[in-house]
Amino acid sequence: MMDERPLRWDASRDGLVGLALGNALLSLLTLGTYRFWGSARMRRAIWSRLSLFGDRLEYTGTGAELFRGVLRGMLVLLPLALVLMLVELALSEGNAATVMLEIVAGFGLFLLTMYAVFAARRYLAGRSTWRGIRFTLAGAGRSYVWLRVRLALLLLVTCGLAYPWTVAAETRWTINHLCLGTEPCRFDGGARDLVPPFLWALTVNGALAVLTLGVAGTWLTGLALAQAPDLSQMAGPPLLPFALLLMAFGPGWLIFEAAFLRWRAAHTSLAGVRFALPGASFSRVVRLAAGNLLIIVASATLLAPLALARRARFHAEHLRCDRLPDLSAVGQVAAGAATDQGLRDLLNPDPFAA
Amino acid sequence: MTEGPAILFDGMHAARRSVRASLLPAALGIHDEDGRELAQWPLVGLRIIDRAAGSIRLAPSAGDARLDVSDPLLAAALGDAVAAMPQGHGRWWFRAAGLAAMVLAGFWFAGPLLADALARVVPASVAAKLGDAAVAELVGEDKFCTGLAGQAAIDRLAVTLAAAASVPTPRVQVIDSKVINAFAAPGGQVILTRGVIAAVEGPEGLAGVMAHEFGHVHEDHGMRGVARAAGLHLLAMVATGNSKLGSAGAGVLSIANTRAFERAADAEAARILGNAGFGTGGLRDFLAGVDKQPSARGFLNTHPESSERVKAIPLRPGTKPVMPEADWTALRQMC
Predict the structure, then answer these.
(1) Number of CB pairs, chain A paired with chain B, less than 8 A apart
(2) Where exactly are the structural domains of chain A?
(3) pLDDT, tens digit, for every residue of A101-153?
(4) What is the pLDDT of residue A199?
(5) Which CATH class is domain B2-83?
(6) Which end of chain A is more exposed for a tag (fewer CB within 10 A), N or C?
(7) Chain B hits for A345, Cβ within 8 Å
């Protein structure tokens, strides 16, 4: 029976909106410099409102660490960018060497971005504690990067159809390397469960794209015939990228997102305790995503950290487990290799990440 | 002495341990339920990790141990006692502001020096390519003016001014645009617009504008400007974690840099015109009149106040004509 609530959100503590507004104001006044400190304060506030098995989580990272992380990231990126710029300038445009250089640089940037994602996650895990015990993301960065390279190639050769398998592999790697102190998390999910929601998402987005092309195309053609005959040529090409965009990022993906959240929780265990997220229904995930989008767009991204708080609260309200475990014997682990999220901040693979 | 129940996490294992916590004169005492002392955490250095209504989480100055106090009276007393202690590192916002100010000041003073040093070591071929790219961007859809006699007149004037400026003769081209602008690209090529030739009142004015651009070439402002702008955007990335606000700030600072270059180029122009034996009146008249021209908006955005610039250029008559009348006529008709 999945009737225990492992995660709770302390709704009696308000002030997150005020904190987000204050951070946004100070970031504006300091041309963005304050955002490292603001981000650390927001994480501390969100973590402290979350209780896992009855005890509050804690975020131990600091703004100065985030700031130093960006400085370190620059030490990596700057020489690379400079050498690349000078080499590119020295080569003439359009020749084979330049094209090769651009391909190599693009691949290098992909590798670096994937490493940045790994380093940022490891940093976040290492700065999150429960009962004074650190979370860790074990495993080597190169193993994660190599996995992402293989998954990207798989996506490429299957024109995206292998997406459920790539999501499953990435989730499996991440959760199987996540530990609370000496206690590892376990994940046993396979991609098969993700295939039906993936196909549903593609179907819904495809239908929306066809509908958009049809309606807008008819409207534009009518407009063109009424005004100037040559405008009719506009109906096709400008709408095509929009339709492709709809296929890639359309609302149908929320079907997949809801199924993914339920699937991830259902296949995760910690110290033999199994989890479930039965409340992650399509309608709730739509409400969560729409609310977050509204907050981000209406505040011109200044209040984006509130979206993170809403996601945390969503999990706290809907996550269930089969029993409350005795984790007294879980031991502390060494602070681990120093990583930070500086590279991720600079490469910006996900501008709304916390 | 205030005391009450608390939960201790020792930082080594995830066990919850029910303890008694007591506020001592200079420390937080922690005892087990049988009264045995487990630890004393000095109040100096004691950290408040989290504080909510009626509860507090504390940690010693170092280590992973935590103490959760849910007794409202004890929590309040401990919170007040820690707040009354001298803090070793000052307020967080004070440190953050200090750090940001240090980085900004470092870049503000050291940045231009580094950028200038970098500009000096950029190979000429690379600077020329950057110049070509900048010219292509500036010219856009406009065409180059191809009148042979006019181009020959410009080339002769360029040779005279380059000798006076002590620089290799830059390539000077005119584009068919009514916008009033002139531009010295990295690598030492100069672009004039039809608009600027129309706006100057005679050959002396054109010599003044060209001397100003040759001043940029002499000071290598094109390459230095590129290096400084890149450095500022880099600073924005570093200091703000790649935020758009930072980029906007870098843009504003770039204009401040550009204006400093313009003042330096004016001073150079006065020197070059003097060496060539040309008067400075034409340049002064051009600058005084350019404020009133709506098509000079691009020029004015990146340049200091014209009245201030006119004052900075000494009025000196020429000792010889800039070019024969026929050359001037050909030049005005070259587009």
Answers:
(1) 126
(2) 7-190+267-347, 192-255
(3) 888 888 988 999 999 999 999 999 999 999 999 999 988 889 999 999 999 99
(4) 95
(5) mainly beta
(6) N
(7) 241-242
